[in-house]
Amino acid sequence: MKVIIHDLGIEYDKMLQDKCDAMISADGKYAPCQGCFGCWTKHPAECFMKDSLKEVCRVIGRADELVIISENCYGAYSPAVKNVLDRSIATSTPMSTYRGKQMHHTLRYGKHEMFKVITYGDITPEEKATFELMAERNAINDGYEKSEVIILKSLNELEDVIV
Fold it and tell me: Cα–Cα distance between 101 and 80 in angstroms, integer?
C-alpha cells in the first residue's frame, strides 16, 4: 500500500489521490499530539482525539511505501507534516528491541519497503544534508528498508517524481 502525506493545497489532492492508496492532507484541521501516549497503551494505534487523524497510525503503519511531501523548513518537515507524524507514534509499540545494533521501538505493523521525502522551497546545502539524515533516521526508526530524499526546484516537477 502506498500512502502520501502532503502539505500542499487542495488543488493537488486529485493528482495525488490517483497516485496512491491513501492520502493524508496535512492541512492543520486537526489537533496536535497531546503526548498522552494513550495510542501506545490504552487504545493501541488509535488516538483519543476525534478528528481526521484518529486512525492515522493504522493508515501509516500499513504503508509499504510512505511518501512525504513537505515544504522545507530549515532542513525539516513543515509544522503541519510534523504534526501528522507526531500523531502517528503508535505505528510502533512502547517496547524496545535492537535493529541494526541500535535500540528502537518494536514495530506494530512490521517492516516496510520505501520511505520517500519530497521537499520543495529554497534549501541550502546544509539543510539538504539535514533533510537526508532525518529521512534516513526516520526510515530506520519506522522499519523502512530504504529512504530517499527528492528536492524539487519547482512544484511543476512533482507529477514527474510521484510514480
Answer: 32
Q: Tell me, what's the pLDDT at 68?
A: 98
Strand intervals (E) in 75-131: 92-99, 102-107, 112-120
Sign of CA dihedral 157, 159, 80, 151: negative
Choose among 14, 15, 104, 16: nearest CA to 5: 16
Domains and CATH numbers, the chain: 2-161 (3.40.50.360)
AA identity, residue 25 = S
Q: Among 131, 125, 143, 153, which Cα is nearest to 66's?
A: 143
Q: For 83-137, how does the pLDDT look when each residue is reduced to its tens digit (9 = 90+)?
A: 999 999 999 999 999 987 899 999 999 999 999 999 999 999 999 999 999 999 9
